[in-house]
Amino acid sequence: MFIYSNRFYIIMDLGDRFDLIKRNTSEIITEDNLKNLLSSGKPLSVYIGRAPTGSIHLGHLVALGKLFDFERASIKPKILIADLHAALDDLKSKWEELDKRVDYTKKCIELAFDWERTPEFVRGSDFQLSQAYVSDVLKLSTITTVEKALHAASEVTRMKNPKVSELIYPIMQSLDEEYLDVDIQLGGTDQRHIFTYAREYLEKLGYRKRVEVLTPLIASIRGPGTKMSSSVPESNIKIYDSEESVKKKIMNGYCPEGVVEDNFIIQLINFFILPNDGTFHIERDAKFGGNIDINSSEQLIKLYTEKKIHPLDLKNSVAENLIKRFKNARDYFERQTDLLEGLGKSFLPY
Amino acid sequence: MFIYSNRFYIIMDLGDRFDLIKRNTSEIITEDNLKNLLSSGKPLSVYIGRAPTGSIHLGHLVALGKLFDFERASIKPKILIADLHAALDDLKSKWEELDKRVDYTKKCIELAFDWERTPEFVRGSDFQLSQAYVSDVLKLSTITTVEKALHAASEVTRMKNPKVSELIYPIMQSLDEEYLDVDIQLGGTDQRHIFTYAREYLEKLGYRKRVEVLTPLIASIRGPGTKMSSSVPESNIKIYDSEESVKKKIMNGYCPEGVVEDNFIIQLINFFILPNDGTFHIERDAKFGGNIDINSSEQLIKLYTEKKIHPLDLKNSVAENLIKRFKNARDYFERQTDLLEGLGKSFLPY
Q1: What does pTM read for this prediction?
Q2: What ipTM score was computed for the predicted complex, to two decimals?
Q3: Which residue of B has its CA nearest to A94?
Q4: DSSP letters along A257-306, please?
Q5: Phi, psi of B229 (to 5 degrees)
Q6: Would you call A168 and B143 a contact, using CB atoms and an 8 Å cutoff?
Q7: Domains in chain B, please, with CATH?
Q8: What is the pLDDT of residues B57-79, one digit of tens each?
Q9: A·B CB contacts under 8 A
C-alpha cells in the first residue's frame, strides 16, 4: 500500500502499520482486534479526547503526539475537545467559561506540534446533547451500577466526595466512540478503566467495541510522590512558558544519575521527544565525550544506566529541545494574551 | 373570587383555598410558601408525575384524586406521564414498550375518576430530551453528590445494587417542576426526599423552589409487613379487576375490629373514598343499627374505635363503592384488550 504520511511517503504493509501503532504504547486492547481492523481494508479513524479542565502542559502531549503514528499508518485522527466532560469533572469549569476553554485548548494543540494538516477537531457539546446521544446515555445508565461507574471513572475524575456527574462521565466517553464513528480510542494509561468499561458496555447497546490504545504517563517533574498538575504552575511545563522557566524546571527535574525509574528527564525523552523527533541530540563538551545522537529508548537507557551520560548533559539538551520546539507557542501567546484572559492564574505563562 | 370547580360553583377566599389544598394531605412544604403563592393573584398550576413502571392500582389514586381539590381551588392540574423515569427506574420497562405503557397509564387515569374536563397530560420524553433540559441535568449532576442523590431517590427507585440511572432520576424530577412551569408538585409521602432535594437544588441553578404537597400512602391490603405492589396482582386492586376479585380482596383486607392503625379499609375510606365522594354510605341491617352516612374521617375513626361499626359492614360497603366506581374502567378493558397486550401478566385484570 502506498500511503501519504505527514512526514514521508512510504509503502507499508500490515505488519509495519501494526508496529507503527504499537510503538511507544503501554497497551493495546486488544492487539488481535487491532490486527483485524487493519486487515479489514476499511478506512479507519482514531480519536483522542481532551477535557479542557485546565492548562495544556507536557503531560498532555504524549498521547496527542502519538496521533502522528496513526496518520502515518493511514488512520484518520480526530481530536475531541470534551467541553461537557470538563464541566462534569470540575465544577470550577464554569459553564460560561467553556467557550473560552475550548478555544484555548484547540489553539494549544495546534501550536504544540508541527502539524502538516490541522487535525479534525470536534467539540463535545456539538453532538452530546442530541436526543439520540442522550437517550443512549440514559440507556447505559440503567445498566451501569453506581459501583461500576465509580470504578470506571476512578483514575480520571476528581472523586473527592464524588458527584453524580462523575458517574455520567465514563458513560458519555463510551458513547463518544460510537457517535464520533471511530474505530480506535487513544489515551493515557489513566484512561484504562474507562476504556475497558466502554468495550464491555457499548456491546450491551448493540454497538461494536472499539480498539483502545494506551500511552504511558510521564513521571512527575519533581520526582516520586508528586504530580504534574495543571493548577500548580511549577509542577508542569506549559508549551508557552518562558525560556527561563522551562530551563529552570528542567534543571530542577528529577533525574538521579544512572537511575531510570521515575526519572522525569529520561521519560520525557523516551515518551515524548524520541517518538516525535526520531532522534535526540545531546550537545556536550569534547572532554565529556562530545556530542551524541540518541536514536532509541533502549540506547538511552543503556548509556544512562552505565553512567555514560551525565544528568546535566541530558537536561541542557532537553531544555534546548523544548525551547526550540515551543517557540511558535510562546510567540503566539505573547501576542494573543486575550486567549488567556479570564481563565485564571494557572493558565498564565510561568 | 368566583371560581369554577368540577363539582360546584363557589365563592372562595384565600383561607378556603388553602384549607381545600391542605385537607387530606400529610404535609405541605411549606404552608407559608403556599399561602404566598395563593395570595400572589397569579394563575397557578400543580403537577403530579406517574412513571409507567407497572399496572395502575388503588395505591396510585390517592394523590391523583387530590387534583380535584386543586381544581376547586383554581389551580390548574397537569399529569406527567414520566416514561423516561420508568425506564430509569426499571430495566424491565423496555424502551420499546414505553409507548404502550404511556397509553395504558393515560387511559387508566382517565377512567379512574369522573373527570369533568380531561386533565392535561404531558409525556416526559417530549421535553426531557431537549438541549436546555439535558444541560440542566448535567449542571445539577455536577453539584449533586452520589450520596445526596442516593438519599433523594431512596424511597422511590428500586435501589437494589443501585444503577447510575437511579441517581439521575431525582435530578430529572426536580427539573420537571421548572420545565413543566408549575408552582406546586403533588405526590405521595414516599416522594418526600425527592421533593426536599428539588427545593434545595433548583435554587442553586437560579430557579425558584416549588411548593410540595404530600398525600398519605394507603396501608397494605394484607396488613403490616406487606406491600401493595404492581407486580403482585393479589397485593393490589386494579381499577379494572373483576367484581369478584375486588370483593374478595376487600373481604381479605386487613381490618381489625376497633383498631385504625395500619387498617387498610379505614385508610381506603379516609384517604380515597371520603376525599373524592365527600360522603361514605354504609348499608347495614336495621338490627345492626341501620344505614349510616359517614361525612368525615374523624367521625369514622370515632365510631370505629368505639366498635359502633363492624368490619364486615365497612367491607361490604367499600366493595360496593369500588365496584360501582370502576364500572367504566372494567367495561373499557373488557372491550379494549389490545391496550394490555404485551405488557405482561401483572397488567391483566385479576
Answers
A1: 0.91
A2: 0.89
A3: B139
A4: TT--TT-HHHHHIIIIIHHHHS-EEE---GGGT--EEE--HHHHHHHHHT
A5: -130, 135
A6: no
A7: 2-215 (3.40.50.620), 233-339 (1.10.240.10)
A8: 999 999 999 999 999 999 999 99
A9: 91
